[in-house]
Amino acid sequence: MKKSKGTPATILLLLIRGFLTCGGVEIEPSMNPVPTGETLTLSLSPAQNLKSGRWAVGESLILTWLGAQQALFPNYTGRASVDVLTGALRLTSVTVADSGVYVVQSSDPQLSTSTSITVLEPVSNVTLTVNETHLMEFNGSAVMTCSISSGSSATFLWLNGSSEVKASDRIQLSDGNSTLTIVNVTRYDQGPFRCHVSNPVSNSSSDAVNFTITYGPDNMVLTVNGLNTTSFVVGSNLTMLCSAQSSPAAQLHWAFRGETLNVTGSLLHLLHATEEQSGPYSCLAFNNHTNMFNNFTTNIDITKSPLSGSEQQAANVFLLLLLLLAGLISSFPDMSGPFSL
């Protein structure tokens, strides 16, 4: 039986792997990972004085040298060179295909050492697209897709304003996190949303996208004269203010005792209020985009004013005078006796 012969490259790789690493000698890259198009220099540390040697990546030979003479293999012509004194390798215009394990081997002095190099294509042209930007709260889903024109080993990160968007019951991340889906959007999902893409050699962000989300009316509030009370005296001037959370802004109408008033807007004024104007006042809200209604009712109590403190004191003094006068009259002698006229 004939023995199969290994290829020269395989034999070379086995020979290289057969050398013991020279104690303490390491390959020091000028950068790692390396962006495509850059120049990579692989130096030996500590520096060595090598009279001969060879460089390879994986099973591919790059070059060999002996003294001042060096020979490049075809795939590296015009891109690779070696410092024949120190053995440092210089590789220009690197591509993703230049990633791999680089091995330097020398027999004078004897050494073999290696390092792993990664070449990455920088991220460029980050683009964010959406299915639609006008949605109704709890009744639609926002789908955002992030894409890049170039970039290797890219990582996708989503931001809502300055906060990172993370997966939850309503938020789905798919396609390697390049697609973000928000199910049953809420008013807090308006954005701005951005997609940030990065790899170890670069990063870039998309333009921001905002959503218009219609909602409401809800969370209604009705105040009178800006106070917490609803009790007032006859003759008071009252200003009722109604508000509702709504997008777009809700149309507001007013009603008194269930009857619609000819008043629209957020304010209702009562000038010189009377007792007859006591009762329930309602603010009615309508959103013509969501077709939703809401209302808020408060009961206003308008009563006659009691005596003030000074008025009450004067009344007490008057009553006391009346009592004193009655006492004086009762103390006079009976004028119906014999000496009466």
Task: Report the CATH superfamily of the largest domain.
Answer: Immunoglobulins
Distance between the termini: 174 Å
The amount of beta strand, in percent, is over 45%
C-alpha Rg (nearest Å): 45 Å
Overall pLDDT = 88
What CATH architecture of the largest domain would you give?
Sandwich
How would the blueprint of this fold be written?
Layout: H1 8-18, E1 26-29, E2 34-35, E3 40-45, E4 52-57, E5 60-66, E6 69-72, E7 80-82, E8 89-91, E9 100-107, E10 110-117, E11 119-120, E12 127-130, E13 134-136, E14 142-147, E15 155-160, E16 163-164, E17 171-174, E18 179-182, E19 193-199, E20 202-205, E21 212-224, E22 231-233, E23 238-247, E24 251-256, E25 259-264, E26 267-270, E27 279-287, E28 292-303, H2 309-331
Parallel strand pairs: 2-11, 13-21, 22-28
Antiparallel strand pairs: 1-3, 3-8, 4-5, 4-9, 5-6, 7-8, 9-10, 12-14, 14-18, 15-16, 15-19, 17-18, 19-20, 21-23, 23-26, 24-25, 24-27, 27-28
Describe the structure.
10% of the residues lie in helices and 46% in strands. It contains two helices and 28 strands. The strands form seven sheets. It has a five-stranded antiparallel β-sheet with strand order 6-5-4-9-10, with helices on one face. Strands 22-28-27-24-25 form a five-stranded mixed β-sheet, with no helix packed on it. The N and C termini lie far apart (174 Å). 23% of the residues are buried.
Keywords:
Immunoglobulin-like, 28 strands, 341 residues, 5-stranded antiparallel β-sheet, mainly beta, 46% strand, 2 helices
